[in-house]
Amino acid sequence: MAGRPRGVEDEVILRAAAEVMGRVGPSGLTLAVVAREVGLVPGTLVQRFGSKRGLILALADQSVRDTDALPDRVRAEHGSALGALAALLAEWTAPMVSPQTFANHLAFLCMDLTDPELHERALAVHEAQRRAVGTLLTQALSTGELRATTDVEALTATVQAVTSGAGLVWALDRQGTIVQRVRRGLDAVLAPHIAAHTATATA
């Protein structure tokens, strides 16, 4: 039985792989499971990515590209840079629909931390996210949403740290959704830096 190597774009396969990762974790992720998700045979994924590891590396590389492109898209959809930032963080965290999904993604991160090649990719994703957050905070500063004295570099690091920490606390206490928890954390971090005339941090 032949697959449809020309019928499904790599980006579609990688999105499916990310969804499968959240559902099954490292032990359950196989080329066969991902292939079934997109209606292909495993051999097609072997031709494209070589192995499960190759698929994971390709997914990380795609994540960097997607993250770098995201600020412009969300900024175009929102009237304020801070509103775009809230949307950006919501889009990143929304796939964690349950504590189990969060745990599965966290398990992949643990793999990244112990494997040099995977760590390189994970760091690249982290840096792309830092650039995305920093871009929107810089825009918020230039449009007067943030106080002129705001240290954007320091605030960017704090936003990243709070976002990560909020997800972990949510997975433990399981109150509300991860998007709600991250939004509250973001609002708390931004509050001291909001310009007096700005009605809300992320309107």
From TrEMBL:
Asked whether the keyword Transmembrane helix is assigned, the reply is no
Q: Which Pfam families match?
A: TetR_C_13, TetR_N
Which parts of this chain does the entry mark as a DNA-binding region?
30-49
Query: This protein's superkingdom?
Result: Bacteria
UniProt keywords, alphabetically: DNA-binding, Transcription, Transcription regulation
Task: List residues of the HTH tetR-type domain.
Answer: 7-67
> Coiled-coil intervals in this record?
none
Q: Give the protein name, as stated in the record.
A: TetR family transcriptional regulator
**Which species is this record about?**
Streptomyces nojiriensis
